[in-house]
């Protein structure tokens, strides 16, 4: 199963266009998480206690574990997130917080090291930026580190289109160039 996590909230989102083209190229059905309409809630003290109870009882049907359970059974993850404030929209941070559920997507071994409980072997991160993303790409690098540290996802790739809001740039031409790169990297 391909899991598509959509953190694009703007009408006419360019990031979503890129991601949809990537999904097209993967050529399989996918399940979507639409963060803009789902508006997941962050883990307050009360919700954290609720989640701890659900995990302790092994209640994988609990609502608060639904994103984690879905994430754990995906084979490939595709994330679409515009470059916001040097990283990504906070909706995606809330989502990752809900997915990092110890006992569902990962656990710890006796040495205290994280061990993945996820099936996925590949994660594709799609982003677009108004300006340029510096070498420290806090958005993708954070997701990449989570993927490798907790979820055992060894293959991660970032497709990015930059400089879309810079006066004089041609956003369509930049997006098309990124689309060509996705063709090459996805071998289609
Ligand atoms: C709330 C917000 C924060 C943004 N922060 C940045 C930023 O830190 N650096 C940057 O280069 N562009 C920034 N941008 C511009 C977006 O990265 C750019 O317009 C992007 O293509 C938007 O993606 P979308 O078309 O999928 O919505 C920001 C835009 C918004 C709305």
Describe the structure.
The chain is an alpha/beta fold and 188 residues long. It has one domain (2-181): Rossmann fold (3-Layer(aba) Sandwich), CATH 3.40.50.360. The protein contains 7 helices and 7 strands, in the order E-H-E-H-H-H-E-H-E-E-E-H-E-H. The protein has helices at 14-26, 35-38, 45-56, 66-73, 90-99, 138-149, 171-185, and strands spanning 2-6, 30-34, 76-80, 106-108, 114-116, 122-128, 155-161. The strands form 2 sheets. It has a 5-stranded parallel sheet with strand order 2-1-3-6-7, sandwiched between helices. Strand 4 and strand 5 (114-116) form a beta hairpin. Helix 1 packs parallel to helix 7 (171-185). The radius of gyration is 17 Å and the shape is globular. The two termini are 19 Å apart. The model has no long low-confidence stretch (mean pLDDT 97). Flavin mononucleotide binds next to helix 1. Flavin mononucleotide (FMN) binds at residues 8, 10, 13-16, 82-86, 128-131, 164-165.
CATH superfamily: Flavodoxin domain
| CATH class type | Alpha Beta
The computed structural class is: alpha/beta
N-to-C CA distance: 19 Å
CATH architectural category: 3-Layer(aba) Sandwich
Give the amount of beta strand, in percent. 15-25%
Tell me the domain tally: 1
Order of adjacent strands in the largest pleated sheet: 2-1-3-6-7
Q: Might you state the CATH topology name? A: Rossmann fold
In short:
The protein is an alpha/beta fold. It has helices spanning 14-26, 35-38, 45-56, 66-73, 90-99, 138-149, 171-185, and strands at residues 2-6, 30-34, 76-80, 106-108, 114-116, 122-128, 155-161. The chain has a single domain, classed as Rossmann fold, CATH 3.40.50.360.
